[in-house]
Every structure is written in C-alpha cells, then in structure tokens.
Design goal:
The chain is an alpha+beta fold. It contains 14 helices and 7 strands. The chain folds into 3 domains: 148 residues, Beta Polymerase, domain 2, CATH 3.30.460; 75 residues; 74 residues, no CATH class.
C-alpha cells in the first residue's frame, strides 16, 4: 500500500511538471501568434484539465491549437522566428482537415495546428468561421488564451473519441467524464452545432464508444448513417485503412492513379513527419522512400479487411 501511494504521488508530481512546461509553451505560442496577427483557439490541454479533472490527473504531452488556414504564411513566419521547427503536415487524404506539426527544440514538445476538427464535413474555412465565434477566454501562465465554449468543447469530446477509437484510453476517459458531468442541455447544444458543421455522424459514432453514450443518442433522437471513414476511425482501424477508403471514394481512374502516386511518393515534408528516419539527412530520406512501398504492402491485407467491415457497417 505504501509503495502504491508513493508511486501515485510520483506520477502526480511528474504530471504536474509536464503540465507546467506544456502550459508555459502554450502561452508562449499563443503570444507569438497573436503578435503575428494570428488568432488561435486552444484544444484539449488545460482547457480540458480545468473543466473535467481535479488537479493534474490529466497529463498534457503536446499542444493543440485551432487556427485559420488563411493565416499559414503569418504562422510560418512567427513560429520560425520564435525558434520552432516545422515537421510537416500530419497526413495525406482527400477531405482530411489540414494539420501542421511543429516541434519546440528545447522541450521536444510537438505543436499541432489544426485548421478544422476530424469529423467535420464543412470546409476548413467554414469550420473556422463557426468555431472561432464559439470561444471564451481564460488565463494560462499569465496569458489570455481562447478556448472553445462549453457546447463546442463538448462536441470536440465526441469527435475526438470518434477520431481515435477504442484504443485511446485518455480520449475515452475525457468523453466518459463529459457524459457523467455535463448536463444534457449542453450535449443537445453540441448536437445542434454538429448538425451545423455536418459532423453529426462522427458525433454520434464517438458518443457510442463510452458508457451512457448510446442512451444519450437515443434520448436526443440523433439519427444518422455512419460513413466509411467515420466507421474506420471509431473502430481504430489498422494503418492504411483511411487511405484505402479515400482511394475507393475517388471518382475515376485518373484521380485514383494520382492518389496512389502521392501515397507511394509523398512530399519530402510529409516523409519527414511520417518517418523519423527521413529526418536524418539525404541518406535517411532516401531509405524512408524505399521502405514506404514495403510498409504500404505489409499493411494492405488488414486495411482491406477493415475497409470491407466498415462498408458493411455503414450500409
């Protein structure tokens, strides 16, 4: 019992230390962006910890901000001048919300800049125009930081769960706490926002992953079909499944051929974000390109099976 208590205190102390560093970096990045004329909205991190947790139960290992794609040039200038290193986009894919990955060299904390939320069907520009108006401010490390308001944060709980599926314990714990602690009226407002953003399928899919979520869907009378890409994410499908779903959804052989070329030979920026080996100079980048087709072929059988299951589930 004593050893268990000591371990718990050590874990809590480690989380406190990590969160302090994370919050300080978040505040610094928000300030850098604001000075560059860029609005940003904090996703997760302190905005979730202070909302659904006591103390530092939830550890924040990276920084997630929602930004507008219209500000990419200003973002690059500001973050580069502040010493952050650009890693590249997060993924390829038709309709995938654009996301940039940056790294803070001193702490190695990764900064993810989202231009929308996975599961939202409207354009990134439309998503920003709606969500940037659904914010409130709080003070973090002495800095004014914007976060989503309660209904929009609630929407994100379900969308984030649908994005990562059953294997992400922390994401599911966020959702479970939200279902236990938030009033049904807030969930109803979140559902209305989901409809406005064409995110209802992912919202419903995410809710059903946690205890009580299916009952809430029934009480709110949320009826929808589940697209293949949403079903794949919620099922924590194997690598390559999403890409296969995007490929099969493309109209015509020409569009499919172009997608395959991009998948086999992505940009150097993408490769450096996808494979750490590609960051080790020209030889490492060349080796990463050589092993990408092998990686795709190795994961193809499982991806095909998952895609077929998701197709049957979505009908």
């Amino acid at each position: 019992m004593v050893a268990s208590s000591s371990s718990s205190r050590l874990d809590r102390a480690q989380s406190e230390g990590v969160n302090l560093v994370n919050d300080a970096l978040t505040a610094r990045v928000v300030t850098v962006l604001r000075d560059a004329g860029v609005e940003s909205v904090l996703l997760k991190g302190a905005s979730v910890r202070r909302w659904l947790y006591e103390g530092d139960e939830r550890r924040s290992d990276d920084v997630d901000l929602l930004v507008s794609g219209r500000d990419r040039a200003a973002i690059e200038t500001g973050l580069t001048a502040a010493g952050l290193r650009y890693l590249g986009p997060s993924a390829l894919g038709r309709g995938r919300p654009h996301r940039q990955l940056w790294e803070h060299p001193e702490t190695t904390i990764v900064l993810e800049l989202h231009e929308s939320l996975t599961g939202i069907g409207v354009s990134d520009e439309q998503a920003w125009d709606v969500l940037s108006q659904r914010t409130e401010e709080f003070t973090l490390a002495g800095t004014r930081v914007a976060m989503l308001d309660a209904p929009a944060r609630t929407l994100h709980l379900a969308l984030h769960a649908a994005q990562h599926g059953r294997e992400s314990e922390r994401t599911l714990e966020d959702l479970r706490r939200g279902l236990e602690r938030l009033p049904e009226g807030t969930w109803s407002e979140a559902a209305t926002l989901a409809v406005r953003l064409q995110a209802l399928p992912a919202f419903v899919s995410g809710l059903t992953l946690a205890p009580g979520g299916t009952d809430l869907v029934r009480r709110l009378a949320l009826e929808t079909t589940e697209p293949v890409d949403v079903a794949l994410r919620a099922a924590t499908a194997p690598p390559g499944s999403q890409g296969l779903a995007w490929l099969m959804a493309l109209p015509g052989a020409t569009a499919k051929a172009r997608f395959l070329v991009r998948a086999l030979v992505p940009s150097r920026v993408f490769m450096r974000a996808w494979d750490p080996l590609a960051r080790r100079g020209t030889p490492g980048l060349a080796l990463a390109y050589l092993r990408r087709p092998v990686w795709l072929l190795r994961h193809l059988p499982a991806a095909v099976q998952a895609w077929r299951r998701a197709n049957r589930r979505g009908r």
